[in-house]
């Protein structure tokens, strides 16, 4: 019978899974409802001093309320590593009025993004931002005992928070095959260039490279005893008139 | 020694029982599909072209005569 933990082999390190599924503790607020934000809700398990004073301990997955709270925490949240299950990416791009002044439109690239990287195992935001009703039901079930979750449900919860498992993100791509193949192809093209050069650029081969001429040249070099100690003539056996073995 | 063998066989059989059949889970990108083809065809093309260029085009390489060329008399009879 298959042991449960083997299903999660490729999702290790287990810390990512464990932290991602950790239920959010109650947040501590310091003030009553602020007229600016209305009934704001606690967004994450961040330390309370990172949160604006208007956040409260009641948790909610409601997106519109998170958006409202998000603008209040924009500057703080960008500097905060959030371990919450649902991120704080704003989906509204309208101007938010705060304290009588307008706030600049939030650009998409300024918001925390999701990355699957081994070096940063817990991305700033969760992968799935908007939950379907089935997914919301699963989230509710997650608040209970984890032992009641089946393996398939645990994997589904993982994929709400993360896109790839560690095994998937670490696997090689086989890109080296294309690279080396491309190298060989272009070196082959260079060979064709040399071929063209031989036909259209090089001049005729000098007569001094004819086979017969080279033979006579060899005899003359041996007659002159060129490099007789360790070099050329040293390799010729003058007694037997052959190359030394 | 016998006890060690027994323990080793027990561990390895348990590990085999835990193995899961995952199927093909490698990436299905360009490199997975065509990488080996590109590699093999590129290498074949390169070796074929350079083998022809080095041997059949008449380029003079002037390799060492040691062990290959036999000398031939060069002095011409004086006339």
From TrEMBL, chain A:
GO terms for biological process: mitochondrial electron transport, cytochrome c to oxygen; response to hypoxia. Keywords: Membrane, Mitochondrion, Mitochondrion inner membrane, Transmembrane, Transmembrane helix. It is found in: Mitochondrion inner membrane. InterPro entries: Cyt_c_oxidase_su4, Cyt_c_oxidase_su4_fam, Cyt_c_oxidase_su4_sf. The keyword Nucleotide-binding does not apply. It is a single-pass membrane protein. Gene3D superfamilies: Cytochrome c oxidase subunit IV. The chain crosses the membrane at residues 176-196. Pfam families: COX4 (PF02936). Component of the cytochrome c oxidase (complex IV, CIV), a multisubunit enzyme composed of 14 subunits. The complex is composed of a catalytic core of 3 subunits MT-CO1, MT-CO2 and MT-CO3, encoded in the mitochondrial DNA, and 11 supernumerary subunits COX4I, COX5A, COX5B, COX6A, COX6B, COX6C, COX7A, COX7B, COX7C, COX8 and NDUFA4, which are encoded in the nuclear genome. Component of the cytochrome c oxidase, the last enzyme in the mitochondrial electron transport chain which drives oxidative phosphorylation. Belongs to the cytochrome c oxidase IV family. This is Cytochrome c oxidase subunit 4.
From TrEMBL, chain B:
The chain crosses the membrane at residues 34-54. It holds the Pfam family COX7B. It is a single-pass membrane protein. Its main location: mitochondrion. Signal peptide: none annotated. It is found in: Mitochondrion inner membrane. Keywords: Membrane, Mitochondrion, Mitochondrion inner membrane, Transit peptide, Transmembrane, Transmembrane helix. SUPFAM superfamilies: Mitochondrial cytochrome c oxidase subunit VIIb (SSF81423). The keyword Membrane applies. The keyword Membrane applies. One of its GO terms (cellular component) is mitochondrial inner membrane. InterPro entries: Cyt_c_oxidase_suVIIB (IPR008433), Cyt_c_oxidase_suVIIB_dom_sf (IPR023272). GO terms for biological process: mitochondrial electron transport, cytochrome c to oxygen. Pathway: Energy metabolism; oxidative phosphorylation. Belongs to the cytochrome c oxidase VIIb family. This is Cytochrome c oxidase subunit 7B, mitochondrial.
